[in-house]
Amino acid sequence: MTSTTALLGLLVSVAAQPPSSAPDRWTVQVHYTPQDRETGRYQYVPVDVPAGATRLTIDLRYDRGGGANVVDLGLFEPGPLDLGTPAFRGWSGGERAGVTITPSFATPGYWPGPIPAGRWHVMLGLYKVADAGVDVELRAEAGYEPAGPVPALFARPRGPLRRGAAWYSGGLHLHTAHSDGTLNAVSLARRAREAGLDFIAITDHNNTVHQLEPLEDDGLLRIVGEEVTTPGGHVNVIGLGGARDYVDFRAGPADPRLAALLQAAAERGALVAVNHPTADCLGCDWGGPVPPAAHAIEIVNPGQPKQQQAIDLWDRLLREGRRIVAVGTADWHRAPAPIDTASVRVWADELSTPAILRGIREGRVVVMADGRTPPPELRVRLGSVAAAVGDTVKLRRGQRYGVEVAARGAAYEGARVALMWDGAPAGQAVLTGGAPLRLTRRADRAGYLRAHVWRKDGQPLAITNPIWIAVDPR
Questions:
Q1: What is the pLDDT of residue 64?
Q2: Which of the residues 48, 51, 177, 280 has an alpha carbon 20 to 30 A from that of 307?
Q3: Bridge pairing between strands 377-382 and 400-406
Q4: Domains of the chain
Q5: pLDDT at 403 over 80
């Protein structure tokens, strides 16, 4: 059994010889300890691939120790291993124990394409290592079968799928079989449409390979995303695109390199959202400051039992002056979980990726418990002027203004609505007969208003993002 230190000088390769139709096979074994996990969360095993290979297969074997050992799997083709390297070919984490890549096919989570000769690296993520350590065996095989064509990315719509300003219903955090979900993109999209969603962001862990799958539904907007699954927290980057586009995940929330990667993605037009910041699974909660590039934060997620703590974090950021947008997601992986609990309504000029992302950045978002219920309408009224969620109202000190929360539909009959000022209750009512909640307030200081709504049975139904109140001190 090879030690981790000795592995640095080990090169697993086949003899230099003209390729034949018979595959080349080789094996390497290595032992990792808890100390290895602390000093190098990601370990790299070099594999030399001969010229002419049209297939590379890697099999990972280790004793899982009843869950005490979890070793993730990823792969790099020849090239640098620096953060953001284009040599990244894919990631399956702990979901799979093997990967095959050919020009025309790849294991879900990995990019198909040519197999360049040279030094590849198998990446092993040491998610969990038992006190006694873990013995890992890698079996590699290079094949020389006839190669098929490289598949193309799905065709993106050139214009909006629907025109006109409206509340569009969407899911911002969904997984397919390219990470730890159970459905392919086609089946996922079908389920989303059945739930009433107008758009989805597919955010598989550490890859965007779902782009290779076309959708059957021309009326559903698909936005390319990635759940950047770092060692100390997860963050969605929504609005990526292009072959093999990704945001590197090998730096944690406290690492300035991750902040730089997220900033670069935002500058390319992507939306950055911190996921389940108060989750209680290993490495799932956000273990550092909310990055400057973050546009949004999940306050509702089924895997986040400490939901109120997430809302409290959001309020703290808002009070500090960060206009970060609250979103709710299903973080969907498999049935029977509902794909639309939670979801968002985004007020956008049209159903297109730029318009939806712009609506989110501007805070024109309501978090909803399902995909079909219309959102409540929060308004601040000043004479004939009405401001909506995401707007800023400029007032003189002492000036009076009206606040209205209107909600129609069977789901709102008997519902309780609370108006929140800077995160604290500022008035409430029970909605009956479609009558809105109306209050009059005085502009004493700057702050923000939002509304929370609970169903008649006490279950959460809606949380709006703020309307901002700016006060001229004169």
A1: 96
A2: 177
A3: antiparallel
A4: 4-143 (2.60.120.380), 162-368 (3.20.20.140), 377-472 (2.60.40.10)
A5: yes
